[in-house]
Amino acid sequence: ITVTSGVLDPEKLDNSLIPISLGGEQLLGQTGFIAMSIGAILAFVSTANAGIMSASRYLLAMSRDKLLPKPLSRINNRFQTPHVAVMVTGLIMILSLLLELKILVEAASTVLMLTYILACLGVIILRESALHNYRPLYKSPFYPWLQIAGVIGLIYVLYEVGTDAYLISAALILVAFAYYWFFARKMVSKESALLHLVSRITNKQLVTGTLEDELKQIIRERDDISMDRFDHLVEKAPILDLKGTVSRDELFRLSAKKLSERLNIDEKKLTELLKKREEEGSTLLTPSLAVPHVIVEGSNRFELLIIRAKEGIQFSEDYPGVKTVFVIAGSRDQRSFHLRALAAIAQIVQKRDFEKRWYEATNEQGLRDIILLSTRDRFNQNT
């Protein structure tokens, strides 16, 4: 663009629809004209392709949220693309050619800039809402000043847009709002990140966990997390979030009480098994983590109990501050999975931010999600 502006006369530049090609002709003659024309066409094709792919994602997301017909969320098995949404987006682009280009571009730009403003505000709200499952792979630098500058800059650009664009954009927004108000809001149950932000300074009971569940699903899709047997075990595992300090024997008694009915074993007997296993060799992995694990009678039995004790468990005189415990109890025929479960736990707790997330989790589901969304080796469902 800089070169083209420098080599073309202002009059040619203002009145031409092919300034890039004319710039090539000015420098390299007919060869330059052809080469730059081909380059410009390819650039427009790639831009259009990117536009179709990104715009179709809006249809895909809205379909998954039950705001648009279900077929729009179909994914092509071979290419893993939303082929129905892509075709509908392409059709809309073709129909848009029937409209006046200048007004269409201005209206589209206005809506796009409003989207960017909301995106900048969304980053600020998501960051400040302290959502447990908000785990972006990329974090914007210079937060929040970059987002604030973006909002101010885009508002200034919007101020310069013509009246026709405002009217068309307002009409589109009103149509979208009417569609949502009279149809879509009855179809979905969503929770706003803004509600989480408000809950930080008011009542925690305002939030229901719907947004956390949605973010969890996004992470699973983004990181290609396929649930294995250990994940399913974690989903149904009981959780103890202990208040105050407890002794090791009290921990074993509470653990046996939680697991005895699930394993169909006497509570006192399970307590003794846990104590005996600890006497044979410490199940402490670190000063703050223990994984007591025992073999029980029977077959096809395997249970997990997840425990957090913020104020610590008195495991011994040398280790008075154990804060994380995974209790495993399984029958002898589950030995292979027993070892895989231990390996999974070892991988999870070794993550750099595990302890920070673990201590900051606000409820049982938050603790469960830390385990379920952790990156680790996942195994075949049959193992």
Structure description:
The chain has 383 residues and is an alpha/beta fold. The chain folds into 3 domains: 2-96, no CATH class; 101-198, no CATH class; 229-372, 3-Layer(aba) Sandwich (Mannitol-specific EII, Chain A). 58% of the residues lie in helices and 10% in strands. It has helices at residues 2-7, 10-15, 19-64, 83-96, 101-128, 145-159, 163-182, 193-199, 210-222, 229-236, 248-263, 267-280, 335-349, 354-360, 364-372; strands at residues 239-242, 246-247, 284-286, 289-290, 293-296, 302-314, 322-331. The longest helix is centred in the first third of the chain and has 46 residues, at 19-64.
The gist of it:
The protein has 383 residues and is of the alpha/beta class.
Question: Secondary-structure map with pairings?
Answer:
Elements: H1 2-7, H2 10-15, H3 19-64, H4 83-96, H5 101-128, H6 145-159, H7 163-182, H8 193-199, H9 210-222, H10 229-236, E1 239-242, E2 246-247, H11 248-263, H12 267-280, E3 284-286, E4 289-290, E5 293-296, E6 302-314, E7 322-331, H13 335-349, H14 354-360, H15 364-372
Parallel strand pairs: 1-6, 2-6, 4-7, 5-7
Antiparallel strand pairs: 3-4, 6-7
Helix pairs in contact: 3-4, 5-6, 5-7, 11-12
What key attributes describe this structure?
seven-stranded mixed beta sheet; 15 helices; 383 residues; 3 domains; alpha/beta
